Amino acid sequence: MADTARAVFVTGAQQGIGAAAARAFAAAGCDVAVNWLDDEAAAEAVAADIRAAGRRAVLVRGDVGTAASCAALVDAAVAGLGRIDVLVNNAGIFPRVDFLTMTEAEWDRVLDVNLKGSAFCAQAAARHMVAAGTKGVILNLSSSSVRGAVLGVHYSATKTGVIGITRSMALALAPHGIRVNAIAPGLTDTAQPRYGNSDAELAEMAKALPLGRMGRPEEIAGLMVYLASPGAEWITGQVYHINGGVYLA
Q1: What is the largest CA-CA distance in the chain?
Q2: Left if phi > 0, otherwise alpha if psi is -120 to 50, otherwise beta: which for 74?
Q3: Angle of helix 16-27 relative to helix 40-52, nearest 10 degrees?
């Protein structure tokens, strides 16, 4: 019998939530294309774990900052896996910058990667899905920073924008049976919150949450796997806040 495993493409999968997502989808029986940018060893480690789970892994290097690169990355994932059933738009950057000194170049770079990248990776993936008649799934990563980020006006703008494009893409792609949802993680134990915060500061931030701790990347990944599963087939256009009890609806 031919292997009919679903094919998943995760952007920004060399570390953190993206790496956890790649591993979780492999554990759920999916083949995974792993997008990476600047740490080949880390990406190879993720691919090795996918293969250890008995699934196929494809490494796709590149930056999601332009529409052309997004299309090329998705094409490479499809070439490696033969199809695309699920796209996880995880790649993102959060360079801290004071609003009063923020430059146009800093603004543009964050919007290019976080918002344009999500939109055009989704467009490229959806085109493949529609051409193949695939009732696929697109998952976009927002953030609890939609409530504001003191050193991240540009970042907050992108993550709020992700919610807007998620809702609009869900409407645009529903006639094709493609579902689109967003996940907005709160304080999660990855490299990202450690940029600009000491361990002691992170511990204090975590204690302030209702559940009293940071989230784990695997917990975010578990929600992704559910939203891409048959059990979630009537869910689209939604935003899921996963943040240890902080109310951000």
Answers
A1: 61
A2: alpha
A3: 20
The answer to whether 57 touches 34, Cβ cutoff 8 Å, is yes
pLDDT in tens, 152-209: 999 999 999 999 999 999 999 999 999 999 999 988 877 777 666 777 888 888 888 8
CB atoms within 10 A of CB 97: 17
Burial letters 19-35, b for 16+ CB under 10 A, else e: bbbbbbbbbbebbbbbb
CB atoms within 10 A of CB 150: 10
Span 114-129, pLDDT tens digits: 999 999 999 999 999 9
Active site residues: 143, 155, 159
C-alpha span between 54 and 49 (Å, rounded) = 9
Contact 88, 97 (CB under 8 A): no
Beta bridge partners of 242: 185
